[in-house]
Amino acid sequence: MKIEKTLLISCAILCFLLITSCNKIQRPKKPNVLLICLDDLRPELKSFGAAYISSPNIDALATEGISFQKHFVNAPSCGPSRYTLLTGQYGPAGNNALFLRANKIEEGTEEINQSMPEWFRTHGYTTVSIGKVSHHPGGRGGSDWNDSTIIEMPSAWDKHLMPVAEWEHPRGMMHGLANGEIRIKSADMDVFQSVEGDDNSYPDGAITDEALKQLRALATLQENPFFLAVGIIKPHLPFGAPKSYYNTYEGVDLPRIEHPQKPEGKTTWHGSGEFMKYNRWGKDPNSNADFADEVRRHYAACVSYADAQVGKVLAELKRTGADKNTIIVLWGDHGWHLGEHAIWGKHSLFEESLHSPLIIRYPGMKSKGATTDAIVETLDIFPTLCDLTGIEMPEFAQGVSLKEIAEYPNTRGHTAVAYKNNASTIRTATHRMTLHQDGFVELYDHTSAENETKNVANKHPELVKELKNALRAKMK
């Protein structure tokens, strides 16, 4: 009897171990997520058609994933655009959008849906952010953006990090130039700069070093899947990058500036205040072609510098082996005018402010190296990541998953909307309509040579009516 009892106990233990083992096999670790955000990056990349640009690392990622050539952000400013990325919902149009959300959470008077990182954290992910992911690098408020009692995204991150190196604080990093120079008065800071030095002579070098450190730790732990967000500051103003990157563009022929004239009639044109407040040595790029080219070369240098930081992160991901089970999303938070419509900056509802790069790569994808002209928007990233990781899709997310387009790049996209405080816009495959708060309408035909230089709203009243309804329905 004792022998039989011992055999029965042994069999029970063996069965338990086998069942446990089978369950482990049936429930593999969910894929990690690596989200790379770049600030003020228009689609000025070789993989997006800018032949003169040196962007080898992002271009290499494009060959492993799918490039959304017609991705549009939902707001032409850092704060509200990142709000839509990180919440999956439309929100306020100001740069303080996420702080306003945080205030509502603290007040507790209304139910606030979880942010994307909080959603993934709730579903078993370790969430870490480095650099500029939300509007404030490091995600804190206060005069120097380092007050730990004022959190931009409550409950979102296990770690929300912002190394400052010699730039003293996150605010100093955000608008820093070489070797610790901090913006005190914009007029006293050069609008562009190029100095000898390595990547750590400018702020993104420190952000990247911290990203590599955190990536190594996350890849080693292996307990939970990770959601790692890395926010690179460049090519944001002021345009500063090590001289080696600027040297790449000396003597390079730049493409002509498309439609460089100030538009006639009522539009969302503005006087490029963010750009013009810096020291420009008395020069105006709208009237000085040589200076305009200098600005564009320095912007290009910043793009290449940012690309190098992306390359370091991707190389470390591969070195750890975590790349085999990691979804990568590379996203630009909005576009940037380089003289089009006589604007130097963002903040308009023209194409140049709203068009930014989006690349998605995930394990096992069949359409590696594909491009798609399907119109998509930033709101779609949250549901896409849920779809690709297999976690629950939140009902409150206002975008749609892009997985089908990633698998079948010829799949049709959908309309994309964006907004400022005084106007909103909708982009279709053929037109852009912008509706001002006072009812004035701009309509542009993207199938025509005039593109967004000729308002044809008066010629197409039925289309205007249709697009007004579509815009209102989408933002409802």
From TrEMBL:
**Protein biosynthesis keyword on record:** no
* Annotated CDD domains: iduronate-2-sulfatase
Q: Which cofactors are named for this entry?
A: Ca(2+)
Q: Does the keyword Transcription apply?
A: no
InterPro entries membership:
Alkaline_phosphatase_core_sf, IDS, Sulfatase_CS, Sulfatase_N
* One Pfam family cited in the UniProt record for this chain: Sulfatase
Residue span(s) of domain Sulfatase N-terminal: 31-391
Record keywords: Calcium, Hydrolase, Metal-binding, Signal
Q: Which Gene3D superfamilies match?
A: Alkaline Phosphatase, subunit A
Where does the source fall among the domains of life? Bacteria
Identify its protein family: Belongs to the sulfatase family.
- The protein depicted here goes by the name Sulfatase
